[in-house]
Design a protein that fits this description.
The complex is a heterodimer of chains A (304) and B (250). In chain A, 38% of the residues lie in helices and 13% in strands. Chain A contains twelve helices and six strands. In chain A, strands 1, 2, 3, 4, 5 and 6 form a six-stranded mixed beta sheet that branches. In chain A, helix 1 packs across helix 3. By secondary structure, chain B is mainly α. Chain B is built from 13 helices and two strands. A two-stranded antiparallel ribbon of chain B has the order 1-2. In chain B, helix 6 packs across helix 8. The chains are: A alpha+beta (304), B mainly alpha (250). At the A-B interface, helix 9 and strand 2 of A face helix 5, helix 6, helix 9, helix 10 and helix 12 of B.
C-alpha cells in the first residue's frame, strides 16, 4: 500500500518526504480496504489511496498528523466524522482541497482527476510526462521502507558467502535501549517494550534454514539474503501489513546472536508472534547448562 | 529549611533543642515567604508565561551549539514534555528519562545511568534545559566525529579513570545481555570480550585508552551510530507548536 502512495505522489509531482515508515504504517493501519485494484497503466486512484495522500499532504504542511489518538475506536470515529482541524498557516486553497480529500465517504471524495484540476494544486504545477506501459520500479521505495535501523555492524567486505556479520562487544552494547536516544522523539505509542534476540551455537547455515522453515510454517512470505531474513504477511485482523526483520550475527567463534525486530504491524501482535516463533526454535536456541533451579528461573522470566 | 531539618534530626531527644527549633522554624518560614514574594515581584516584570519554570534565555543556550534559535525553542518543547512527565518541576529526573527511553519509569539500567550522568554536567541529580541542549548537541548530525568519539568514550569509561578497563566492558556486556534477556555462561562472555580486546587493545595492556578507542571507532563506524540523531536536523517539524511562542524571528 505505501509504495502505491509514493507512486501516486511522484506522478502528481508532490515532494515525497517519507519521514519514516511511521507515516506509511499510520496510513496502512487506518486505510479502508481498497475499493478498486490499481491498474497497471496510469492511476485512476482508488479512493482509499487518495485519502492517504490527503494525510501525507496535511503532514507535509502542518508537521503533524491530522488524526492521532491513542485508542483505535476514537481514531476511527474522528476519521469517519472528518474531525480534524487545519492549523492557521494553511492557506484557504489547501484547506478546501484537504477537506475534499479527507472526506470519509469514498463516493463523494475528490478523485485524482479532480485534484489535478484544483486551483491550489495547479499553482506552479509541472505535469509529469506519462510513459505508456511504464514499469514502476519499487526498489527505491522499498529501500526507504526497509528497516533503516537494521545496520548495527560495519559491513565488512567479506560478508557475502563467508558467513554472518561479526559483532563485537561494543556493537552489542550499542543495542541497548538506554543508549538509543531516538526514543525521545518517537511519538508513537506502540514502542516494543521487550528486546527480542537470542543466542545459538548451531552452525550459522542451520540457524538460517531453521528460521526460514519456521517462517514458512507460520504462513509468512520469507525473503532471505546472506544472513538477513524478512518475514512478510498480513496482520491478524487483516487490516494491514505485518513484517519482521531478522539477522544473524557472529559474536564469537561458533557463537551467534539472532536479532529480531518488528518491521511493520502491531506491537501486541509482534510479541505474540515472537513467543510462537521461539517455541518452534527451541532446538537451536542455546541455554546455559546450569542446574535445574536456574533453568526453571530462566523459563519463568523468558519467553525465548 | 535544611538546617531546621538537621536540627530536628540531631536533637530529637533534647527538649532544649526542640524548643529552639520551635522558636526558629516560624522565623525561617517568615523569611522564606518574604524572599518568595519579593522574587515573585521580579518575575512579574517578565512577560507572563504559562510554564511553571523560568523561561530560559534561548539565544544564550543556542550559542556555541549547532542549533538555531528556532531549533532550541523546539527542543524546549521536547524538554517541557519530558520534564513534566512524572514530576512537573522543569527538570528531567532519572525516572522521567527512563520513562522516555523504556516506556516504563521503573527498572535499573546501567546505560541509562551513564547517559543521565553525562547529561547532568552540574551533578545536581537532574537534567536542566541548558545541560539538555548542550549534551544533545553532541548528537547533531553536523557535530564533528571527534566529539562523538569523546562522548562515547566517557560513556563507556564507567569509573571515569581515563581508560575503558576490561572489567568495565564485562560489566556492560553483562548489562546488555540482561536487558536482552539472553543468557550466556561466564566462559562465553570472556570469549566475546577476548575477541573484542584482541581487536581493539592496540598496546595490549588490558584496557582501552582514548587512542585505542578512537582508532577502534574509526574502523567500526557503526559503533557510533547511536551518537547521531538525525531527528535533530528536523526538530522544528517534530515540535512545531513553538511557532506560537517564539521570541525570536529566525
Amino acid at each position: 500500500m505505501p509504495s502505491w502512495n509514493a507512486a501516486i505522489l511522484s506522478q502528481a509531482d508532490l515532494p515525497v518526504d517519507l519521514t519514516g515508515s511511521r507515516l506509511a504504517m499510520h496510513n496502512s493501519s487506518m486505510k479502508k480496504p481498497l475499493e478498486v485494484v490499481l491498474s497497471h497503466q496510469g492511476y485512476d486512484g482508488s479512493a482509499a489511496d487518495v485519502w492517504s495522500c490527503g494525510v501525507i499532504l496535511y503532514v507535509l504542511i502542518a508537521g503533524y498528523l491530522p488524526f492521532e489518538e491513542t485508542d483505535l475506536p476514537t481514531l476511527y470515529r474522528k476519521i469517519n466524522a472528518a474531525e480534524f482541524a487545519c492549523p492557521p498557516w494553511f492557506s484557504p486553497g489547501v484547506k478546501s482541497l484537504i477537506n475534499r480529500i479527507l472526506d470519509p465517504n469514498p463516493k463523494t471524495r475528490i478523485r485524482i482527476v479532480e485534484i489535478k484540476n484544483d486551483p491550489w494544486f495547479r499553482k506552479n504545477y509541472l505535469a509529469v510526462k506519462h510513459v505508456e506501459d511504464e514499469t514502476v520500479n519499487l526498489d527505491d521505495v522499498r529501500a526507504v521502507f526497509d528497516d533503516i535501523e537494521g545496520k548495527f555492524v560495519s559491513e565488512q567486505s567479506g560478508g557475502n558467502e563467508k558467513g554472518p556479520l561479526m559483532m563485537n562487544a561494543f556493537e552489542m552494547i550499542t543495542l541497548s535501549q538506554g543508549l538509543n536516544l531516538s526514543a525521545l522523539f518517537d511519538r508513537r505509542q506502540d514502542y516494543v517494550k521487550r528486546q527480542t534476540r537470542f543466542v545459538s551455537r548451531k552452525p550459522a547455515k542451520d540457524i538460517i534454514s531453521s528460521i526460514e522453515a519456521v517462517g514458512i510454517s507460520m504462513g509468512f512470505k520469507v525473503h532471505a539474503r546472506n544472513y538477513k531474513v524478512r518475514f512478510e504477511g498480513i496482520s491478524a485482523n487483516k487490516a494491514g501489513q505485518f513484517a519482521v526483520a531478522l539477522e544473524v550475527y557472529e559474536v564469537a567463534t561458533a557463537l551467534f546472536m539472532v536479532d529480531v525486530r518488528k518491521a511493520a504491524g502491531d506491537t501486541f501482535e509482534y510479541h505474540k508472534f515472537y513467543k510462537n516463533f521461539c517455541s518452534k526454535l527451541e532446538h537451536i536456541i542455546w541455554r546455559p547448562a546450569e542446574g535445574a533451579a536456574n533453568s526453571s528461573l530462566l523459563r519463568r522470566n523468558l519467553t525465548c | 529549611m535544611e538546617s531546621s531539618k538537621n536540627n530536628l534530626q540531631s536533637s530529637s531527644s533534647l527538649t532544649i533543642g526542640e524548643r529552639l527549633c520551635a522558636v526558629v522554624i516560624p522565623f525561617i518560614f517568615l523569611i522564606e515567604a518574604l524572599i518568595f514574594t519579593v522574587s515573585g515581584c521580579f518575575d512579574c516584570r517578565r512577560p507572563p508565561r504559562k510554564h511553571r519554570f523560568r523561561f530560559p534565555d534561548i539565544a544564550q543556550v543556542a550559542k556555541d551549539t549547532p542549533f538555531s534559535v528556532n531549533e532550541v525553542e523546539a527542543l524546549h518543547e521536547l524538554f517541557k514534555k519530558l520534564s513534566s512527565s512524572i514530576i512537573d518541576d522543569g527538570f528531567i529526573h532519572k525516572e522521567e528519562l527512563q520513562l522516555a527511553l523504556f516506556r516504563t519509569p521503573s527498572g535499573e539500567n546501567l546505560f541509562l545511568d551513564r547517559i543521565f550522568d553525562l547529561f547532568d554536567e552540574k551533578r545536581n541529580g537532574v537534567i536542566e534545559f541548558d545541560e539538555f541542549v548542550h549534551a544533545l548537541s553532541v548528537f547533531h548530525p553536523n557535530t564533528p566525529l571527534e566529539e562523538k568519539i569523546n562522548f562515547a568514550f566517557r560513556l563507556y569509561d564507567l569509573r571515569q579513570t581515563g581508560y575503558i578497563e576490561r572489567e568495565e566492558v564485562k560489566q556492560m556486556v553483562i548489562a546488555i545481555l540482561l536487558e536482552s534477556e539472553m543468557h550466556l555462561s561466564d566462559e562465553l562472555i570472556e570469549v566475546i570480550i577476548d575477541k573484542t580486546f584482541a581487536d581493539a587493545d592496540a598496546d595490549m595492556d588490558g584496557k582501552l585508552s582514548k587512542e585505542d578507542w578512537k582508532a577502534f571507532a574509526i574502523r567500526y563506524p557503526n559503533l557510533l551510530k547511536n551518537m547521531t540523531l538525525p531527528y535533530l536536523k528536523d526538530i522544528t517539524t517534530v515540535f512545531p507548536s513553538f511557532v506560537f511562542n517564539t521570541e525570536v524571528e529566525d
